[in-house]
Amino acid sequence: MSYEVLAQKWRPQNFNDVVGQAHVTTTLKNQILSERVGHAYLFWGPRGTGKTTVARILAKAVNCPNRVQETEFDTVQTAEPCNQCVFCNDISQGRSLDVLEMDGASNRGIDTIRDLRENVKLSPATCPYKIYIIDEAHMLSIEAFNALLKTLEEPPPHVIFIMATTEHAKIPKTISSRCQDFDFRHLEDEKIITRLQLIAKEEEISADPDVLTLITRQSEGCLRDAENLLERLVSSAGKDLTTDAVEQIIGLGSSALLRKLTTAITERDLSKSLKTLNDLTKQGTDLSQCLDQLIGYFRDLRLLAIDDNLSELIQSPKSDVSELKQKAEQMSVNRLSRIIKILMHTDRDIKQYGYPQIQLEAALVQLNSLEEGIPLQKIVDKLSALEQKFDAAGISVPAQRQFPPSEVNPSDQQTASPQTPLRTSKNILTSTEPDPAIHYTDSPTTAAPDSNASNPSSTPQGSRDLADLPLFWETLKPKLPMKLRYGLLESSVPTVNGTNMVKIACSPTHISMVTDEDKQIISNILMQEVGTSVKIELVALETVPESASAQEATEKTERKTPMIRKAEAQDDPQLKTALDLFDATVLETQ
Q1: Residue-wise pLDDT tens digits, 166-182
Q2: What are the E-state strand segments in 95-184?
Q3: CB-CB neighbours of 575 under 10 Å
Q4: What is the CATH number of domain 189-250?
Q5: 73-129 pLDDT tens trace
Q6: Using the 8-state DSSP alphabet, how is residue 398 labeled?
Q7: How high is the pLDDT of residue 520?
Q8: DSSP secondary structure of 62-114
Q9: How far apart are CA 374 and CA 40, in angstroms?
Q10: What pTM value is reported for the model?
């Protein structure tokens, strides 16, 4: 007698035996009982979830003449096939002339569909209905689909079409709109484990829940894959299955080493992580499988870190739940999410580029450097506390930085916030000169500052004195074209000669690049500031000597050592208040 594999031997023979697809079987049973069976069905979903099995059960149910169930007092009509009549036996064994199964991959041409169209006109040989089951229907050609359209929409009353596919998106809309659409879903792990326990009990296989959990994880929600894997393990290790034997046969890392690796990642022990990974490699572990296990482990940790009540959703054995909860309390959800993301990117890189051990080592280095993030609300609370300290100390807070109109993007003006966030640091880098583009207010939320205070750019148009040009020259540069601002005039020195003559000392190599139009632009900008026409003359930088006071100030500044400048900054009254407020020190002065 020929051997029958477990997946075939334990294939469901009625609707009640189908696992995990109650939303499909309930609807079909109701249609059979109410005699509202459709003429065309489309079953789609992942592999190994029961599409062809349900199609065969439906074919038996609509053709079975003995769909009755004996009760205590009476006999009632049922939707389940009896599996004892000639029709049911012939369909189960594939001998029925009225239930035809076609493979869409090998019968995808238009000629096959033409023959089908001619055969559907013939009456059934023995059964009440002639059933056509087209498996992998998405493999049919476009021409074959088009030839099937009319027959599928209005078949003879004795014909039922059942198409099954794993690629629903490849079925033309003109086909799916003519069928009753049923989606088959991945099975829950608990339902697969329950089914495997039943099979193991009947087949006298010794397998504890941890072994069945490992098998279920590898099946990825497909019962047929789980049954085939169970049979492979029995053939290799015998009917007494242990966790170590399953891990070795499948290529998984040993539980002890994997637990050691996850602990090392959690504790940020990079050396221990790399050594454990090397031990897994020496054992011949499939590192892709190892990576899948790591992703599943940290996914379980993240669920428990979110809420202890989510323990029903984890994939790890129930015996490990208490240990997982303890580790989940030590890690934040944010860090666990980043660990999972890094491992998933590593899995993608291994599939794309190879070198699994090197990729995993790089991932372990990256995981070891992950730091706990600071929640945004905590940052906002600290900023609020700093604002209160400023108010209590009577210190003004910098308001929004003002940029000249020529530097502001119109789109930024629409989206800019009314206030620039305050930036703080434990170490302050000081400067001997204030930033002329920042103005200050008495409080963080008050209105605009005094225009005559410290902001030179806010002086009314035409009210400046041309003699003060060296003082406000830097504030005029942003108004100049980019060519002049960052090229010619980047290190320029202006001087006033007479009442309306301005000499601008700049690099000799740039003087020849300036046109009369450029000079006119500079003159117009100056005229807007001083209110009178100004004549511009460019001279080489070395021809304009610095004033005696400027030279003296420069020499005096250069004579100060960095230590002297640092001490002066440390003793500055205004800066000292800020240093005390932030508990900071001066690192460097410029």
Answers
A1: 999 999 999 999 999 99
A2: 99-103, 130-135, 159-165, 180-183
A3: 16
A4: 1.10.8.60
A5: 777 889 999 989 999 999 999 889 999 999 888 888 888 889 998 899 899 988 999
A6: B
A7: 83
A8: HH-S--EEE-SS-EEE-SS--S-SHHHHHHHTT--SSEEEEETTTS-SHHHHH
A9: 57
A10: 0.58
Class in CATH terms, 459-545: alpha beta
Give tens-digit pLDDT for 452-484: 434 444 444 556 777 777 777 777 777 777 667
Q: In 329-464, where does DSSP find H-type helix?
A: 333-353, 356-368, 376-393, 410-415
Q: 439: burial class by Cβ within 10 Å (0-12, 13-18, 19+)?
A: buried
Token pair of 524 as six digits: 């117009």
CATH class of 6-183: alpha beta
Report residue 531 as tokens. 């209110």
Instruction: Average the pLDDT over 344-355 and give the result.
Output: 91
Q: Which residues have a Cβ under 8 Å from the Cβ of 272 and sit 6 or more positions away?
A: 260, 264
Ordered by start, the domain boundaries in the chain are: 6-183, 189-250, 255-368, 459-545, 551-589
Give Cα 574 distance to the centre of its chain: 48
Closest to 497 (Cα-Cα) out of 519, 467, 524, 474? 467
Residues 6+ apart with CB under 8 A from 269: 368
The CATH number that domain 255-368 falls under is 1.20.272.10
